[in-house]
Amino acid sequence: MTLHNLNTPGDALRDAVNLADIEALGRAALDRNALEYYASGANDEHTLRENRAAFTRARLRPRVLVDVSGVDTRTSVLGLPLSSPIGIAPSAFHGLAHPDAERATARAAHARDSVMTLSTFSNTPIETVGADAQGRFWFQLYLLRDRAHSRAMLDRAQAAGARALVFTVDAPYLGRREVNERHRFALPAHLGAPNVASRDALAQVETDSGSQLANYFRDLADKTFTWHDLAWLREQTPLPIILKGILTAEDAVLAAEHGCHVWVSNHGGRQLDTAISSFEALPEIVDAVAGRSEIYLDGGVTRGTDVLKAVALGARAVFLGRAALWGLAAAGQNGVERTLTLLEDEFRLAMALCGAARIEHLTPALVRL
Ligand SMILES: Cc1cc2nc3c(=O)[nH]c(=O)nc-3n(C[C@H](O)[C@H](O)[C@H](O)COP(=O)(O)O)c2cc1C
Ligand SMILES: CCCCCCC(=O)C(=O)O
């Protein structure tokens, strides 16, 4: 049972001055099952911690005596205008955080001129989320062994207004989040995964041997897919394809050669522990792609200076995983909106203090790695 129906008082949300404050509110609103699912990383959680540490280690080289009386944070992703280069990463099961689930996240993305990435494993059907997002959503695909089912999800996403397909490539198997194994994470009975399975099918997955999701995913996901199969995926949808989970120059080159955009990510430290942090992987990927594709990044983004550093080094936009979930748990749509607003405000101030009035002024010279 989640505790969100106690509702974070509006005052507490208004008093939050940064994302850490919202995280504290969000964590307090969740029961152990949900909290451990959201917060956990794989194994010893080195990569989870390193995602934050890498941002902190990088130092800024600000320029001064620049007219920053007006700072413009606006940009676009694949032609979609955004109020700032901050979007929402896909995460499964928003219903664990709030009764409005993905609808609240989609409404917040729309209200803040952002973009939401909807997980294959949402608690809300694609069509419902599409209506709330009003064109401000991308659809994330986990390729199922049942290709016809996967194909049907792509058709539904496109019909619902998705602007891009985010194809997750770092999870043929789920990473081992040990706390979820130890406490046998399971979806509460009132939540389902309507894009993928009936509630009954989920309820029947055994949890005696550990996490319900890990057990379910093992049988469901296609593990045979290779670069050669991208041609098949390309034929299934006219949407732009973004490969999420790229961490090396070698794979970034292949992505660009296959006409795909690149999402630099280690899945928030939930897959391969001790994998490189997303931020440290970014420079070699930007070099390798050499402008052929858009590049996005997620993993540990919680400060306006994180956004600035990633964009300065070549990311078109950054995406929030857990930070959006903490906002959702704290106060539904309002909580996600507040998260986006606080981060955008921090980013604007960081730009001003770096002497950058426009996104184009953010260059690698601002960052010392
Ligand atoms: C609870 C949770 C569920 C997630 N579910 C998905 C998912 O369904 N599909 C996917 O591609 N990535 C998923 N991710 C990974 C995120 O998209 C993103 O890569 C990661 O959370 C970014 O790191 P951050 O949480 O530090 O911002 C999930 C992450 C979390 C924390
Ligand atoms: C059987 C549902 C699996 C959902 C996996 C979501 C995910 O990517 C995560 O990191 O958790």
TrEMBL record:
GO terms for CC? cytoplasm
Q: Whose protein is this, by species?
A: Deinococcus arenae
Where is the organism placed in the taxonomic lineage, from the top?
Bacteria, Thermotogati, Deinococcota, Deinococci, Deinococcales
Cofactors needed by this protein, per the record, are: FMN
Q: Which residues form the active site?
A: H267 (proton acceptor)
UniProt GO molecular function: FMN binding; oxidoreductase activity
Q: Where is the signal peptide?
A: none
Query: Can you name this protein?
Result: Alpha-hydroxy-acid oxidizing enzyme
Binding site residues for FMN: P90, S91, A92, S119, Q140, T168, K244, S265, G321, R322
The record ties this protein, via InterPro entries, to:
Aldolase_TIM, Alpha-hydoxy_acid_DH_FMN, FMN-dep_DH, FMN_HAD, FMN_hydac_DH_AS
Instruction: Enumerate the spans annotated as FMN hydroxy acid dehydrogenase domain.
Output: 11-369
Q: Which UniProt keywords apply?
A: Flavoprotein, FMN, Oxidoreductase
Where are the bilayer-spanning segments?
none
The family annotation for this protein states: Belongs to the FMN-dependent alpha-hydroxy acid dehydrogenase family.
Question: In which residues is glyoxylate bound?
Answer: Y37, Y142, R177, H267, R270
